[in-house]
Amino acid sequence: MPFQIRKIIGKIENKEVIAKGSSVKIRKNLNKLYGNGNWIKMKGIARVELSDGSVTLAEIHWFEAHGIGKKHIKVKYYLGD
User: Fold this and answer.
1) Running DSSP on this structure, what letter comes out for residue 53?
2) Is residue 2 within 8 Å of 74, Cβ to Cβ?
3) Distance between CA atoms of 51 and 21, rounded to whole angstroms?
4) Quick one: pLDDT at residue 18?
5) DSSP string of 18-75?
6) Which of 28, 38, 40, 51 could pair with 20 in a Cys bridge, judged by C-beta atoms 3.0 to 4.6 Å apart?
7) Does residue 64 contact residue 71 with C-beta atoms inside 8 Å?
8) DSSP reduced 3-state for 30
9) H-helix or E-strand containing 12?
C-alpha cells in the first residue's frame, strides 16, 4: 500500500526508542529543517487513516525532539485490523 498517512487515530502504543543523539543518522538534516534538538528516532503501533480514506493498524516510525514534536512520520509495516 503506497499511501501516505493522513492522521493518527487514537494513541500510539508500544513506543520504543530506536536511536538517539549521534546515532540518529539524519540528525544534521533534522537540525537544518526544524532547529537544533536532542533528536530521537522512535517506533510504535497506531491506527492510522491513509490518504485513500482507509483505516488500518500499522507500525510507524518517526523522529522527535523536545519542544519540536514528531516529524517525518511514516508507515514501516501494515499490520491489518
Assistant:
1) S
2) no
3) 32
4) 96
5) EEEGGG-TTHHHHHHHH-S---EEEEEEEEEEETTS-EEEEEEEEEEETTTEEEEEEE
6) 40
7) yes
8) helix
9) strand 5-20
Per-residue pLDDT of the chain (81 residues; tens, 9 = 90+): 467 788 999 999 999 999 998 899 999 999 999 999 999 999 999 999 988 888 999 999 999 999 999 999 999 999 976
Identify the CA nearest to 41 among candidates 58, 53, 25: 25
**Residue that the C-alpha cell 487513516 belongs to:** 49
Grid look-up 500499522 returns 58
What was the pLDDT predicted at 2?
61
Alpha carbons 64 and 71: distance in angstroms, whole number: 6
Q: How far apart (Å, rounded) are the C-alpha atoms in residues 64 and 66?
A: 7
Q: Write the single-letter amino acid at 59.
A: E
CA distances to 40, 42, 64 from 74, rounded to whole Å, are 15, 11, 13
Q: Which pTM does this prediction carry?
A: 0.86
